[in-house]
Design a protein that fits this description.
The protein folds into three domains: 1-73, no CATH class; 75-162, no CATH class; 164-290, Serine Threonine Protein Phosphatase 5, Tetratricopeptide repeat (Alpha Horseshoe), CATH 1.25.40.10. The chain is 77% helix and 0% strand. It contains 15 helices and no strands. The protein is elongated. Residues 95-101 and 118-130 have low confidence and may be disordered. InterPro entries: EMC2-like (IPR039856), TPR-like_helical_dom_sf (IPR011990), TPR_rpt (IPR019734).
Length: 290
């Protein structure tokens, strides 16, 4: 197998689909070829190929060595490709080096965004912030989900970089809610509404959090807030059953009989018109029967 063939395997991504015995053969040849005289382009292309091959073979230490050689040669703050390699390494290993590598990736991402913003300003807005890089950073952040404290910190750092990422705001709200921090959860959901004011499901979700808090604290103001958010959700989407169910419960708690009847009427229409899934229709029917 020639050098050109190895370069082609790298370029085409064929290494990802090779049978195991061929991976071993390509790995052995790549390792031997790296000891020969090569141009910089050839050497670092083969190092990247070796990196992917060693990860596939479970040789994490050797993969880290390849990654370090590449990082030593290129400026991480100017290379999105290296950030991708770091992300791949973290996702493949998720071992004792997780904190070290992912912390470095988030730091590198922040620097890249800073440089990108400077370039964007100097070039009249022709350059965009690197969305692919942000996706890489987001994947690394997700690796911390088992450690609630660290996951929250990583999400907060990511949102410093991407404050308009509604998915991450929603994820952070769920993390806060799972740990009983309802006010922080509501704040995160409210951040989504700043950029997506017609997101009826988010209006309803805030209502649900307010409703749950009202049940725990017996605070009538929470029920009022829940009613307001559910009402807005129903206004934006009159067939959204969760909005009407929440409005029904809020109205019951506040003793608003007219709103209770309105909610029941709308839920009846959703059921009779089969405007949601069969599972949801069963749940609605059970609630209306009580």
């Amino acid at each position: 197998m020639s050098l050109e063939r190895l370069l082609e395997i790298h370029r085409s991504g064929l290494y990802a689909t090779l049978p195991l015995h061929q991976i071993d053969s390509v790995y052995t040849l790549t390792k031997a070829t790296l000891l020969t005289q090569l141009s910089d382009f050839e050497r670092f292309t083969l190092l990247e190929l070796q990196f992917y091959l060693t990860l596939t073979m479970g040789l994490d230490i050797e993969a880290k060595h390849c990654l370090d050689l590449i990082c030593d040669r290129f400026d991480i703050t100017k290379s999105e490709r290296i950030c991708v390699l770091k992300s791949v390494y973290v996702e493949a290993t998720t071992g004792s080096t997780l904190r070290e590598v992912s912390d470095g990736l988030v730091k590198d991402a922040k620097e890249l965004v800073r440089l990108s913003n400077i370039a964007k300003s100097s070039m009249g807005g022709k350059l965009n912030i690197m969305q692919d890089l942000m996706a890489v950073t987001k994947r690394v952040v997700a690796l911390h989900h088992e450690d609630v404290k660290e996951y929250t910190e990583k999400l907060a750092l990511f949102l410093d970089l991407q404050p308009l990422d509604t998915e991450s705001w929603y994820e952070m709200s769920e993390v806060y809610l799972a740990n009983g921090n309802t006010d922080q959860a509501i704040h995160c959901l409210s951040e989504i509404l700043l950029t997506e004011p017609f997101a009826y499901n988010v209006w309803s979700r805030i209502g649900e959090v307010q409703l749950m808090t009202g049940f725990k604290t017996s605070d009538s103001q929470r029920f009022e807030e829940a009613k307001r958010h559910f009402a807005r959700s129903c206004e934006l989407c009159e067939t959204y059953h969760r909005g009407w169910l929440g409005l029904l419960e809020s109205a019951k708690r506040l003793g608003d009989k007219k709103l209770v009847e309105l909610s029941r009427t709308q839920l009846d229409k959703i059921v009779s018109g089969k405007l949601t899934s069969a599972e949801n229709i069963d749940k609605i029917s059970q609630i209306l029967a009580n």
